[in-house]
From TrEMBL:
<dbReference type="Pfam" id="PF04557">
    <property type="entry name" value="tRNA_synt_1c_R2"/>
</dbReference>
<dbReference type="InterPro" id="IPR042558">
    <property type="entry name" value="Gln-tRNA-synth_Ib_RNA-bd_N_1"/>
</dbReference>
<dbReference type="Pfam" id="PF20974">
    <property type="entry name" value="tRNA-synt_1c_C2"/>
</dbReference>
<dbReference type="InterPro" id="IPR001412">
    <property type="entry name" value="aa-tRNA-synth_I_CS"/>
</dbReference>
<keyword id="KW-0067">ATP-binding</keyword>
<dbReference type="InterPro" id="IPR020058">
    <property type="entry name" value="Glu/Gln-tRNA-synth_Ib_cat-dom"/>
</dbReference>
<dbReference type="InterPro" id="IPR014729">
    <property type="entry name" value="Rossmann-like_a/b/a_fold"/>
</dbReference>
<comment type="subunit">
    <text>Monomer. Part of a multisubunit complex that groups tRNA ligases for Arg (RARS1), Asp (DARS1), Gln (QARS1), Ile (IARS1), Leu (LARS1), Lys (KARS1), Met (MARS1) the bifunctional ligase for Glu and Pro (EPRS1) and the auxiliary subunits AIMP1/p43, AIMP2/p38 and EEF1E1/p18. Interacts with RARS1. Part of a complex composed of RARS1, QARS1 and AIMP1.</text>
</comment>
<feature type="domain" description="Glutaminyl-tRNA synthetase class Ib non-specific RNA-binding">
    <location>
        <begin position="173"/>
        <end position="243"/>
    </location>
</feature>
<dbReference type="GO" id="GO:0017101">
    <property type="term" value="C:aminoacyl-tRNA synthetase multienzyme complex"/>
</dbReference>
<dbReference type="InterPro" id="IPR007638">
    <property type="entry name" value="Gln-tRNA-synth_Ib_RNA-bd_2"/>
</dbReference>
<comment type="function">
    <text>Glutamine--tRNA ligase. Plays a critical role in brain development.</text>
</comment>
<dbReference type="InterPro" id="IPR000924">
    <property type="entry name" value="Glu/Gln-tRNA-synth"/>
</dbReference>
<feature type="domain" description="tRNA synthetases class I (E and Q) anti-codon binding">
    <location>
        <begin position="664"/>
        <end position="739"/>
    </location>
</feature>
<keyword id="KW-0547">Nucleotide-binding</keyword>
<feature type="domain" description="Glutamyl/glutaminyl-tRNA synthetase class Ib anti-codon binding">
    <location>
        <begin position="554"/>
        <end position="652"/>
    </location>
</feature>
<keyword id="KW-0030">Aminoacyl-tRNA synthetase</keyword>
Length: 762
């Protein structure tokens, strides 16, 4: 019967029967709409006009704070709020003023309640707005943002709230009078802004991720306006705490990048670094690098160093490097206070008892406060073994997890505090409180932490301390990759990769070792952007960003992987050849390479019996040698006892002394012997961790051809003084970077990427 009554009630507001039934499926919406309609009927009777019904539906569907429902409904019922723009202003007002009581005078002024605007006032305001923007209107014509005009009528919001249709009509008429009818140019579609324009590349500059970011970041609150964020929980202390927060920060944006020092950063962390540091930089704010060092069992000094190195490598400098352990004394004091307030208790359930979807409630949840205080002190003094006691908080999280652990016993010495502590706080307890201590304005984290948002707000409010806002975004993943610390350790243990920095991995140290420029990684993060949804990208998109950067920054050299000796029988005299570092822009300088009677070419650049379309060296088919101005022509093929080609004898001529050859090939003379490592994908399938795609597990999906070592490659001597991480383009082969394994007289190069994307890659 209740459903029938509600259906009649909703159709009485002007909703179609279909929309009314759909509304009933949404419990929260239908409850608010039923209460609103019932209240209005007490004022207006059983007949409600459609305009009022529309406002009530808009109110019920958009109001986030049910406490304000009755207040706003009364304004609609009494026709004080009678337009959509007034309702929007009212909703914005109650959202930005969460505490009681509401200042009704200020509220009514903001919403344009009771203001009557004459046609003459409207016309004057419209004309004034047109005049203010006349020069820009004449330039941009009908592509001008007319919304700017609607926002600047100059009557304290009264036009906007009460007369939108007349204003719009007058604006249209005035603009038509000023500009005349639309021309063909006006009707052309506005060109889309390309990616290069977004990144600033067209202007010859590099713009960081957050300096060009749009989308989700536009929804971010201003410092001190945390309460305007949907879902933010306020208390009677909130506004005073925010006032104190603003006094400390001066309204400055503050973010933090909070890695755990128990592994090496990967490509997903690059997005987090760009987002946190970039957002702060774009808003003239600061970003902390805070190590979440609350688990001494897994933390190692090398991870702290590597994380700092990677942040710096990506081009960011933290405002301050901090540690969760900096705040251990304060965190402990707050834990004691939490027990005093009856919001935490010492529990003796074992870890295995707490696993699963529906673990049993703790039988110690209601133990006396004094007892928990004594037991927590005993935990601190080392009177419990590991696992015998924990401190738990009294709350239920979004995912249904009940009473998360705040402190546990661990007897592992801490890298900074030594044996001072034998109890350590958990992430659920530590993170929000460290954010509060550092007065973080925007706590940016990936989507998997959304289930912890309730505990984040709850804990700050339970202790009456400043509560930042947690914002979640989708993490960045790549196909053909694993980034889990545990699984990378398995890869290392089985010998599939050498270490965390093996160039086949997607850790940041591995990418740097392979030769990926930090600028390319930042550009890739910018292209991916920041969204709520998780993003899984193809590796070739990252490689494309690498090519874009290296094409402009990696000087050219020549190298031969599988060499074939060529003897020039009529060579005039040894020469030194000037080779441009960047053939497309010779203003970037030259390097010198020797050119003698013996050169080496790629074995694949010669064929005795070429197939149709083959354009390189063959009988009767000369080729040019790049940068020399000479052409060579085959005269004799020298073969070994097995019949394999050992060397070629050729003659040479000036390139301008005859017909232009079909191809020019690279070569080396008096070369260096170097080791070159050629890398391919480590895994064969897109999702090596997906049992549906790889039933045998990720270790069964290894590509056995992922590394090929050329131990005696020949490289021109221009690279002789190269240092680790120096980058080159080896002509016709790809981009290469000097590996740290290099020693004096024995350079090692890693192939970073090929010159072009492999068409066989999906």
């Amino acid at each position: 019967m209740a459903t029938v009554d509600a259906l009649s009630l909703f159709t009485g507001l002007g909703l179609s029967e279909h929309k009314a039934r759909e509304t009933l499926k949404n419990t929260a919406l239908s409850t608010q709409l039923r209460e609103a309609a019932t209240q209005v009927r007490q004022t207006l009777g059983s007949t409600i006009d459609k305009a009022t019904g529309t406002l009530l539906y808009g109110l019920a569907s958009r109001l986030k704070d049910p406490r304000r429902l009755s207040f706003l409904v009364s304004y609609i019922a009494n026709k004080k709020i009678h337009t959509e723009t007034q309702l929007s202003a009212a909703l914005e007002y109650v959202r930005s003023h969460p505490l009681d009581p509401i200042d009704t005078v200020d509220f009514e002024q903001e919403c344009g309640v009771g203001i009557v605007v004459t046609p003459e006032q409207i016309e004057e305001a419209v004309e004034a707005a047109i005049n203010r923007h006349q020069s820009q209107l004449l330039v941009e014509r009908y592509r001008f943002n007319m919304g700017l005009l609607m926002g600047e009528q100059g009557l304290g919001g009264s036009l906007k709230e009460n007369t939108p249709v007349p204003c719009l009509t007058l604006f249209s008429a005035q603009v038509l009078h000023l500009l005349g009818p639309k021309t063909e140019t006006d009707l052309e579609k506005k060109p889309k802004v390309g990616l290069n324009m977004v990144l600033g590349e067209a202007a010859g500059q590099t713009v960081s991720l957050m300096e060009q970011l749009r989308g989700e970041a536009l929804k971010f609150h201003k410092p001190g306006e945390n309460y305007k964020t949907p879902g933010y929980v306020t208390t009677p202390h909130t506004m005073d705490l925010l006032k104190q927060h603003l006094e400390i920060t001066g309204g400055q944006v503050r973010t933090r990048f909070p890695p755990e020092p128990n592994g090496i950063l990967h490509i997903g962390h690059a997005k987090a670094i760009n987002f946190n540091f970039g957002y702060a930089k774009a808003n003239n704010g600061i970003c902390f690098l805070r190590f979440d060092d609350t688990n001494p069992e897994k933390e190692e000094a090398k991870f702290f160093t590597a994380i700092c190195d990677m942040v710096a490598w990506l081009g960011y400098t933290p405002y301050k490097v901090t540690y969760a352990s900096d705040y251990f004394d304060q965190l402990y004091a707050w834990a004691v206070e939490l027990i005093h307030r009856g919001q935490a208790y010492v529990c003796h359930q074992r870890g295995e008892e707490l696993k699963g979807h529906n673990p049993p409630p703790s039988p110690w949840r209601d133990r006396p406060i004094e007892e928990s205080l004594l037991l927590f002190e005993a935990m601190r003094k080392g009177k419990f073994a590991e696992g015998e006691a924990t401190l738990r908080m009294k709350l239920v999280m979004e995912d249904g997890k009940m009473d998360p652990v705040a402190y546990r016993v661990k007897y592992t010495p801490h890298h900074r505090t030594g044996d001072t502590w034998c109890i350590y706080p958990t992430y659920d307890y530590t993170h929000c409180l460290c954010d509060s201590i550092e007065h973080i304005t925007h706590s940016l984290c990936t989507k998997e932490f959304q289930a912890r948002r309730s505990s984040y707000f709850w804990l700050c409010n339970a202790l009456d301390v400043y509560c930042p806002v947690q914002w979640e975004y989708g993490r960045l993943n790549l196909h053909y990759a694993v980034v889990s610390k545990r699984k990378i350790l398995q890869l290392v243990a089985t010998g599939a990769v050498r270490d965390w920095d093996d160039p086949r991995l997607f850790t940041l140290t591995a990418l740097r070792r392979r030769g990926f420029p930090s600028e390319a990684i930042n550009n890739f993060c910018a292209r991916v952007g920041v969204t709520v949804a998780q993003t899984t990208m193809e590796p070739h998109l990252l490689e494309a960003c690498v090519r874009d950067v290296l094409n402009d920054t990696a000087p050219r050299a020549m190298a031969v992987l599988e060499s074939l000796q060529v003897i020039i029988t009529n060579f005039p005299a040894s020469l030194d050849i000037q080779v441009p570092n960047f053939p497309a822009d010779e203003t970037k300088g030259f390097h010198q390479v020797p050119f003698g009677p013996i050169v080496f070419i790629e074995r694949t650049d010669f064929k005795e019996e070429p197939e149709p379309g083959y354009k390189r060296l063959a009988w009767g088919q000369p080729v040019g040698l790049r940068h020399t101005g000479y052409v060579i022509e085959l005269q004799h093929v020298v073969k070994g006892p097995s019949g394999s080609v050992e060397s070629l004898e050729v003659t040479c001529r000036r390139a301008d002394a005859g017909e232009k050859p079909k191809a020019f090939i690279h070569w080396v003379s008096q070369p260096l012997t170097c080791e070159i490592r050629l890398y391919e994908r480590l895994f064969q399938h897109k999702n090596p961790e997906d049992p549906a795609e790889v039933p045998g597990g990720f270790l069964s999906d290894l590509n056995l051809e992922s590394l090929q070592v050329v131990e005696a490659a020949l490289v021109d001597c221009s690279v002789a003084l190269a240092k680790p991480f120096d980058k080159f383009q080896f002509e016709r082969l790809g981009y290469f970077s000097v590996d740290p394994d290099s020693r004096q007289g024995q350079l090692v190069f890693n192939r970073t990427v090929t010159l072009k994307e492999d068409p066989g890659k999906v």
